[in-house]
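Re-run requested by the PI after the first attempt was lost when the workstation crashed. Everything re-entered from the original request form. Ligand of interest: N,N,N-trimethyl-histidine.
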Amino acid sequence: MNLLPEAPAFARAPWLAPGWSLARRAPRDAADSEPAPPGPLRADAAARVLDSPFARDVIDGLGLMRKSIPATWLYDQRGSELFEAITGLDEYYPSRTEVWILQSCAAQIAAAAGRGATVVELGSGSSRKTPLLLEALDAPAAYVPIDISAEALAGAVASLRLRFPALRIEPLVADFTRLTHLPALPLPAPGRPRGRRVLFFPGSTIGNFTPEAAVGLLARLAQAAGDDALLIVGADATQDPRLLIPAYDDRRGVTAAFNKNLLARINRELDGDFDLDRFDHQARWDAQQQRVEMHLVSRGAQQVTVLGRRFGFADGETLHTENSYKHGLLKFRALVARAGWAHRQFWMDSRGRYAVHVLERSAA
Ligand code: AVJ
């Protein structure tokens, strides 16, 4: 393994400066930007909304014995902005540690990738970390960012085109967790080598998946990516609750706002009536499962209505909104092996907080 020396102080790093900026969003579709009708949804509109995946997950999740809603719904435009703000917080060490590790090991990753690689990024969002990789690569053939947010993609692609004018960029609006195959490799320009596929999966997003789901996802990616693919994945490795709890419950309350934005989104999009002041943000460390959990805790007993359905909360009852797994190294290796990937290399900061791994398809 490659142990990196002590990470420097990051407070002044440009990508973390207090005036952090967001990728400019593309204008939304006209249909999208129509203001929501005032008052309760009309019956036909309500039926249409009810059929959406968001509505189904929310209605199902609020009906559970232990209420929970999949974390993916935290990331609407406002949620993504708040997450972006979280990455600049003093307490949130993963982002800056990952950036620092990528800067330190980019040349070695580039050597592993070889000439003419096609980089496929999963859940690319603002593609903020991508230049660290692209700049190090030897004549990359193409960059394929994949994200569910067309707006985030448009903004990211526009700025990458300015920065890498010669690079072929082929964005794909898709939910990478549902991809069964990847787009065909673009043909290299005449005289350029065709390199391997390099899947880039930074940000510890893998930590949002239960171990079983992570194995499923990584196995599908192995299938989709083909034989000589590489997978570069960033994963949080901390197990110390004294570090973890503040990282997920910061002093300025940005993470609390991020968590509560889910309720605001339900109110906005699903005609809900959550009172945001009657829920408290909570971060918990589950040592057994090695994961941080985010919850919203009901202050007092209360009823809420979503799409005309009523749900009761007891005093102190929680709505579970996100998991963030922090697998130890052995566990992580075993997990990727089950999915058909061989663990080739990894880099970690000297405090063992975060790791960037290079995986290769293992011979079946
Ligand atoms: C985007 C899933 C990597 O789990 O650390 C940060 C999300 N939630 N603070 C994480 C998150 C609360 C983040 N991931």
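Saved to the shared folder this time. The CA atoms of residues 86 and 254 lie 6 Å apart.
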